[in-house]
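Listing S7. Sequence submitted for prediction.
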Amino acid sequence: MLAFLMTLIAGLSTLIGYFAIYIKASKNNLIKISLSFAAGVMLCVSISDLIPESLSLLMVDNSKNKAFILAFLIIIIGIVITQTIDKIIPENNNKLYKLGIFAMLAIILHNVPEGLIQYVKYEK
């Protein structure tokens, strides 16, 4: 039950950010500032934490060179997937519509494995 509760809380936390933007959606500056801040945070976390941690985990079972190559390939695959999704989403007169669809897909792709990890973590 604790695992389900923690996963539910993590999922509902996403709604807090949604409501903040939904309430102030008429102000484009808030959206631009929020997106810029989120992108900066994610880049900082990726460079300072996620990439070094993934390299150390990859080096447990692989050589140093193979670990760097695998990490590089996975990053490239992520970029290709992102670009593919960007090309698939239809163009619309409203650029925020395309951004909203793109953000929705990114959140779905991000939250599925994150939810599984949260569940497994708290089930133990």
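Caption to Listing S7: primary sequence and predicted structure tokens for the chain studied. Residues 2-123 form one domain. The first helix runs from residue 2 to 23.
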